[in-house]
């Protein structure tokens, strides 16, 4: 798995967790003090989020950062 694929998987995970909680992308972005466009880029894997960004998202979703980045990594 390359970095682009990992970014996409983490973005998908964030979207799934957000939707499972009934939170809009706009609301999650606001809770993290991000622009909605930035959240969109993260969820679609078009940007490489920093650890602090992932931490803010995990806090807003009330989960650990481990749960946030728990994606299947294929070789």
Topology:
Layout: H1 3-20, H2 25-32, H3 36-43, H4 51-60, H5 65-68
Helix pairs in contact: 2-3, 2-4
Can you give keywords for this protein?
434 Repressor (Amino-terminal Domain); DNA binding; 75 residues; Lambda_DNA-bd_dom_sf; Cro/C1-type_HTH; Helix-turn-helix transcriptional regulator; single chain; TransReg_Diox_bact_type; mainly alpha
Global geometry: globular
**How many β-strand stretches?**
0
CATH architecture: Orthogonal Bundle
Report on the biggest sheet: none
Question: What is the mean pLDDT?
Answer: 94
**Strand content bin:** under 5%
* Whole-angstrom Rg: 11 Å
CATH topology: 434 Repressor (Amino-terminal Domain)
Structural class: mainly alpha
Could you give me the name of the CATH homologous superfamily?
A: lambda repressor-like DNA-binding domains
Number of domains: 1
Q: Any low-confidence stretches, pLDDT <50, length ≥5? A: none
Domain HTH cro/C1-type: 14-68
Protein name: Helix-turn-helix transcriptional regulator
GO molecular function, one term: DNA binding
Keywords: DNA-binding
């Amino acid at each position: 798995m390359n970095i682009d694929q990992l970014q996409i998987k983490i973005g998908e995970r964030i979207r799934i967790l957000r939707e499972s909680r009934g939170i809009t992308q706009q609301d999650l972005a606001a809770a993290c003090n991000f622009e909605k466009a930035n959240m969109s880029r993260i969820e679609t894997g078009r940007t490489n989020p920093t650890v602090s960004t992932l931490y803010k998202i995990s806090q807003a979703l009330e989960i650990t950062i481990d749960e946030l980045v728990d994606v299947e990594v294929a070789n």
